[in-house]
Protein 1
Amino acid sequence: MGKPHSEVSGAKIMTRIKSFLNSDFVYRFRKDKVAVVSLGIVLVLVLSAVLAPLISPFDPYDLKSIDIMDSEIPPVWDENDGDERFLLGTDPQGRDMLSTILYGMRISLMIGFFAVLLQGILGVTIGLLSGYLGGKIDAFFMRLADIQLSFSTLMVAIITLAIFQAAFGAELYSKLAIFMLILVIGIAEWPQYARTVRASVLAEKHKEYVDAARVIGMSPARIMFRHIFPNTLSPILVISTIQVANAIISEAALSFLGLGMPVNQPSLGSLISSGFEYIFSGSWWITVIPSFFLVLLILSINLLGDWLRDALNPKLYKD
Amino acid sequence: MALLEVKDLEVEFPLGRITLQAIRKVSFSLEKGERLGIVGESGAGKSVAAFSILNLLSRPGRISGGEILFEGDDISKFDDRQMRSIRGNRISMIFQDPMMTLNPVLTVATQMIECLKAHRKISKKEAWDISVSKLKEVMIPSPEERMESYPHELSGGMRQRVVIAMALLTDPEIIIADEPTTALDVTIQAEIMVLMLDLCKSNNVGLILITHDLAVVSQVTERIMVMYAGRVVEEGGTKEVITNPKHPYTRGLLKALPQENTAGSRLNQIRGTMPSLNALPKGCAFNPRCDFATKECHQVVPKLEGRDGHNTACIHLEKIPSFKSELGNQ
Amino acid sequence: MQATLVMFVISLIGFSIQDNLGDPLRELVGQSVSEKERDALRDRMGLNDPFLVQYGRFLSNAVQGDLGNSYFFKKPALEVIARKFPATLELVIGATFIIIFSSVPLGIYSAIKPNSWLTRFILGISIVGISVPVFLTAIFSIYIFSVELGWMPSFGRGETTAPFGWDSGFFNGDGLLHLILPSLSLASIMMPLFIRLIRSEMMEILQMDYIRFAWAKGLYPKRIWFLHAFKNTLLPVITVGGVQVGTMLAYTILTESVFQWPGMGFLFLEAVNRVDTPLIIAYIIVVGLIFVVTNTVVDLLYTWVNPTVKLVGQKS
């Protein structure tokens, strides 16, 4: 997955790709329609979110392009009031729903991705250290993981963010929201990774190749990252997939409560939150369409994660 | 008519694209009160044969051919309800590892009484009394107290005694014991084996003992059946087979026993390992490990033949020297 | 031991919030008082005391149930929370009932019949259930059942009666009707999780030797599934269940905010918006207590189901 070394020739990469495409893993994937469709949807959604500034018809952050006269226009397929400028209609401020959703998804995905990256870095490092060094360090981190896991992530996130919001004031908070969300969701879930990585390290630690590496004088850090870490990749991949979905859900929930992204820079969660009163007055699209995209995104990622878990069948740490 | 008669039993495990044949054309019978030993290395199919009698094969295993006649009825065709009236009632089982056989969250009493109540219309009090008397039979001290115990409060030997008591609860005609002492401490193994032998004799219960241990079989059983890679390779009276083994595989097993060698000398092991079921050699499955194998052995699957109930599946019987002379040569 | 540690950390957090958020003086005297008078007042109130003294005072007050007055309600914060507690409890109880009575049978069914079409359906629905955030379930259930179909009340707690000296919606039709949608929404997110958990654990248990032995004993399938296998399945389910109580509490905040359910979660959100510090602290401490209590209950339950763990000489 990572960047190929520069000295690896193009031909070598090609054969590698070819052998990957011919592998059993890919064969099984192609036979599973649900998995293929899920991956397709995830790719399309991620791509359009990344390219949002290029492909969205309007810039929802540009106040000049917004006309309050365009507010609450239903989607195009509504024959009476639809406006062909706004494919998915507009929100109460006259913003184009399609553009807002694309930008919102960009934020949701970004928070999900970076939060999981943070979890992964923390968890993998702690897991490697705990498993490799053992002893008191191991006992300390695993105890910490126990305690942290016994609390609910969402509860901790809600309370932490509520306190920060009260402390900073809403205005300053809304500027920091994106970092706060990544930080809080990222820090809360490291034990998942740490426990799994630790378990794999313990399993790998006494294998011959690790002994051999030690004998030829490799440093512990090098042994861990070059030799033990690659063996933990498949459980990490499975966890990460599910965790991205969880992080996006958590972010949406926090934003829905008004503890996440502000209205002028909305994620999918805050879009739903600000639109949900309008569902009762008939402007259903303001809530329903972002909800649809949110569920579609999470569902596809979850289905993909489920498939990966079945296919790779890694030994995940269980409580 | 024999009490139990297994005819041409075939068991297979369909695993996606391939189907493994675990048991091929195995036949044997058991008279009332008779004790039969089924011997072989792990993977020979002896446990599968035992479990298939009660139709307890683990998924996706299934009986694909043959008959299992119990008192003349083919129980392999029984439905679940009919089978339930046999299991634990007329034929009961003893499993290998007593640590794993008893449910960890239920008391001994619960696990004994439920078995009686599943098969007889009796009160809880009566079931309790019968259970206690069976615990006494297997020499468990203060059985009333043990009834209230959970499995983890008992030692391994004690647990296997409880399992044996459970197998005897309903006074079955046959007990199938799958390596009943393998998981126990060596010191307790003989004790448990002697106990089982005594109980089978005194209750006139038939026993099918599955084991890889020829020494145990020779002490306990009257007849013996040696299996290799899903087939029977030799069968006969225990004494006859042990003293005059004909099949090279049986000989190999006997020569590997420590007491056949003088102290300090090397153990004679059969070279090689049992082939896996998806890669069986053509012809006689034992041919890659056999000292007497010829070209013919790679082509013909030998029939089980012989006289006076001592049958062997080998085409080179006349070529092979007698067991005693072979031992003498060493 | 762990419980004390957790409560200690929570009290520290609570105290530092009090210390940094909002000036108690302002609440008491307003802006008109001069700087000198303020300082004198500060001294008298002990606000210039060293940290440890102040924290000790906070702790001893907290232990006596005094967490200060809510700025908004002008009443003791704990009392305000306590009054909202039954509403949240009812929601949690309602959801727990739904979760237990749906996920247990569905989980068991999908474990013992892994290849049936109904199992595939259950698993398909459950992955959708996991993927729909709880607030969306809440919003759309209101939209469908209250707005479109008009079968259910859309918000609030409805009529409450107090036959046992506790103001509750359990004992009359209106109260129960109001409870249905919120509990269903709250349950909707946990149900799939438990179905999948029960299924995977039970499938593992069903492979165990003692289950095969139970079959060999000729027991009825129902006894094997529901006693022999399920009792063992319960152990991991209880452990996870304990953790999920905390998550459920977090979800009550979401559910209550959509349904405007007058419980603790809704109160907490209002308190955050009003920067009602004593109320925020009180909520955090109550939530901490609930965590500690549920963990203890879970430990007890676990011991009760699992005979190999003895309460005497307990670890940690």
Protein 2
Amino acid sequence: MVAFDEMTGTGAELRPAYEALDRWLKEAPPEMLALRRSQAELFFRRIGITFAVYGDEESTERLIPFDIIPRVLTKPEWAKLEKGLRQRVTALNMFLADVYGPKECLKAGIIPPDLVYRNACYQLEMVDFQVPHGIYCHIAGIDIVRVDADTFYVLEDNARTPSGVSYMMENREVMLRLFPELFAMHRVAPVDNYPDQLLATLRSVAPRSASSDPTICLLTPGQYNSAFYEHSFLADKLGVELVEGSDLLVKDDVVYMRTTQGPKRVDVIYRRIDDDFIDPLVFRGDSVLGVPGIISAYKAGNVTLANAVGTGVADDKAVYSYMPEIVKFFTGEEPILKNVPTFRCREPEANAYVLDNLDKLVVKEVNGSGGYGMLVGPHANKAQIETFRKKLKAQPEGFIAQPTLALSTCPTFVASGVAPRHVDLRPYVLSGANGISCVPGGLTRVALKEGSLVVNSSQGGGTKDTWVLDA
Amino acid sequence: MRIRISHSITYAYDEPVRQLTQILRLTPRDHDGQHVMSWRIEPTVDGNLRAGQDAHGNIVHTFSADGPISDLAIHVGGVIETLDLAGVIRGTIERVPPDVFRRDTLLTTPDDALRDFAVAATRADSTPLAKMHALTEALHDLLACDRSGQRTGIGAAAAFAARGGIPQDLTHVFMTCARQLGIPARYVSGYVAQSDALPEAEGAHAWAEAHFDDYGWIGFDCANGLCPIDTHVRIAAGLDFADAAPVRGARKGGSGENLAVLVSARAANAQFANQ
């Protein structure tokens, strides 16, 4: 399977977006690239940008490898992507408002009701509750893969607490420092206004009872969370307090933050704690990370949670397979971004096909994320395939399968020099009371192992700066 | 049957509580099989007690109080008139569709043993209703029920492996099996009154309800091996114990919690006779 290369296409051409970069790469001495790479690593180490890998015993914190060769998108490519992202996120929010409200899409048979009702992420507490300003998914991360010059697929929607945006910003920062000459050669759309857009989004969804200058905080599970660095980074950029559950208290359905000047009322909480752990009185009682009573305050309309509780039902992988129909139903338009063709193992014929072709397919757990609980057939050994065969037979509804895609590649600086490596893209889409915004680009993740298609940082992936050329 | 219930939950803390919030699902609602004649809910500490409803339509009281609190009791009780409807539940408030109750939860996660048992125990029966009766009988015979009130639940798979548990565990085992068979099942917490039919059953109790397209919800009590009769007073229903728990709480301070629970549920006239 020959993958589309974003610089060289099918191998023979040099795509226009990469012309200057190609010239520069050819002229740059390898020692210089190696030096810059070690400088980049030093930079990341100094600022302490790390993430935790679960199940990795030797180190709880690790640096995500950064590749110094940027991934470049042209303005028209991005314009099409952005339009598709806006449409998709609009549909996600409409879908959520519908399944927690009138359920028109279930009545119309767009999606089987039991996919919603039996989904553990469908939070019963949210049924018939009006979220502030009607927005559920304020911050979405939509994972996009590319298979040829014109075709982008949505691989996955992340509607809960998508992470990685700090890498998008830090990658740009480090590139600007290390390669000023490249930015002189290219007009790259800036990404540093993301915090302003996020802050504006969060302010716009404050409860109507809040003052015109709402108090916002960022709620983190704490320093042991894999994305803690990002939480502190964003709080700092937003100019809001970074709080843990124990820093908040609820009295008479109002949330307060403990400060040195006494309790201060909180209006909007950008929460990076999962639903299950956010309120021990309503969800998991053993959670020590959350805030007892916060759901009651939320339902009383005294605080906005971003994202809303219960958004996980929209990014479930089984629901994902219905997204084209969902987009059409709610927006009345043809989906601009395609879905990866997906076999729903809950359907017997589909599952039979999947079981016969496990060595060719990618099988994913419906509720898994981060590349855990996934079978990449062509790269799996016999034992792994048999393990999945058992799982698929026991609980077919817990899985979907997709063809192994030839994800596009980008030139990447590896030990042997510059070589193509597979990439994906996670743009961040913000939805507020005043509309949708999306900084150009997003986070490009790269599978550093030759031939590997798994870009997740937890599975040995790295990142790149993502450029959208302004001209 | 007219049942008088008195339920006291008493907490003593080694170190005083600074602040506490409790979610109390301790108040029954009317339905065809029961009529609430009187009911009260009284914490012994000053605080804020507000009534509301949860996602299932259960009556929920949120009680919050500031410390220092060294002792707290929640007294609930009242008089309920019940009818024997052979376990059929009608006239309840239903907020969510039955399909929701086919979900696995932390306490009702199946393992291979439970999956196999669910099929084997119900193989001889053809209708969903007959299957649930067969399941109730099989579990009643197979699992030992601990009514001491001294133990906490361990979840369906562990209880099944141990061949016994508290009524909560037996209920979770039943629900897990029913859900495996594609039948929606939910958790019910309540009380069982002392009676000649169930001499040992008096007290706080838990049982399950299964949903049938033809009949709606019907109760199944594995601990007692029958469908709920007029001795059963229904308080709250949910996805599992955690979702329908009588008390959920969070507190600041108050390490060293000592809990004591006292329940009586007797025929109202019998109690008058005793006085």
